[in-house]
Amino acid sequence: MTLLSRLGVRLPIIQAPMAGTSTPQLAAAVTNAGGLGSIAVGAVDATAARTTIAAVRAETDGPFNVNVFCHEPATADPAREAAWLAALAPEFVRYEAKPPATLSEIYTSFVADPAMLDVLVEARPAVVSFHFGLPPQAAIDRLKAAGILLFSTATSLAEAQAAVAAGVDAIVAQGWEAGGHRGVFDPEAPDARLGVAALTRLLAARVSTPVIAAGGLMDGAGVAAALALGAEAAQLGTAFIGCPESSADGYHRAALFGPGAGTTQMTSLISGRPARCLPNRFTALKDGVPGRTATPDYPIAYDAGKALAAAARAQGEGGYAAQWAGQGAPLARALPAAELMATLERELAAARNGAA
User: Fold this and answer.
1) pLDDT tens across 187-226, in order?
2) Number of structural domains found in the chain
3) What pLDDT digit, counting tens, does each position of 8-48 carry?
């Protein structure tokens, strides 16, 4: 049985979860249009996750994906965190604000969140997907016993093989082009930075589970190319940021459709983990003192990043936010999700017919 058949979706298009940008409305619209919509609950607690899942179900009877973060819990380092706040202090002063006195681990990893596991087992979404690694085997076993299909991001063959061995049902092959957080299991390990084409073909040839291509894919032609490489579906994120159903603010949308879209940058400054972002005032700090200061662990560093973004926004400057986007950003379109899905479907059909 194909992945699409198991999912019960018509189109090989998955909307990426995109924590902070995806919404129940966006996920439901994509699912209702024949794809697989997604929400992200890695940045919220179990109670909020339950509410978010219910909000999707209020707008669709179809399948959707719920994404969780499986990073290693942060190790606090007061000295490093104090040095990081000191390095960022001039930026806070610029916007008439003071940096936080201390930083905290603002997200609980799914690997240490039994309450979130209980919510997911109870809610039984069609798919649960893992980012940054894998949860304990006992959690995987409980989710599978509940009849939930499991996806895991992989940026390398080794990560994909680990996920397959753990019982994951499909691998999201995240190329270096992808926007948002790089899904590497260990951010301190060497990263081969494989592009989506090479990674998709490698995994399609070497792993036994279906592969979902992700990274820089923005239109039907890109989806067709991913399928030709052996993927069973394509995951698109940046393509959906411009939809009115996304929660991207005006600053993010302006940056997405601005001249910097073609020069996205990988940075750890905002959150403490590598993530691809539109060029903005925060990414520019790599050339200053913050860029020469050790970044606290994710997501402790993100506590500072969010505080700085809020301080600047209060003064009318939106350029310190996490304006994630992939390398395909110049191809973004400001269309309602249903219209974008219909456009992607037409483009995919045209690309397939042209290749026939």
Assistant:
1) 999 999 999 999 999 999 999 999 999 999 999 999 999 9
2) 2
3) 999 999 999 999 999 999 999 999 999 999 999 999 999 99
Kindly state whether residues 237 and 352 are assigned to the same domain: yes
Q: How remote is the C-alpha of 311 from its chain's centroid?
A: 25
**Residue with tokens 């590598």, as numbered in its chain:** 274
Name every residue whose Cβ is closer than 8 Å to that of residue 102 and which is 6 or more positions away in sequence: 78, 81
- CATH number at 38 reads 3.20.20.70
Residue 115 neighbours by CB under 8 Å, 6+ apart: 45, 46
Count CB atoms within 10 A of the CB of residue 3.
21
My answer on whether 240 and 211 are in the same domain is yes
Are 52 and 163 contained in the same domain?
yes
Which structural domain range is residue 323 located in?
75-106+258-329
Domain match, 195 and 279 both: no
For residues 130 and 167, state if they share a domain: yes
pLDDT one-digit tens code per residue, 264-290: 999 999 999 999 999 999 999 988 877
Read off the tokens for 177. 């082009």
At residue 129's C-alpha, the angle toward residues 136 and 138, to 5°, is 20
Instruction: Tell me the backbone φ, ψ of residue 156, rounded to 5 degrees.
Output: -155, 165
What band does 355 get if pLDDT is binned at 50, 70 and 90?
low
Nearest to 54 by CA among 102, 123, 126: 123
Same domain (yes/no): 301, 336: no
- Mean pLDDT, rounded, of the chain: 97
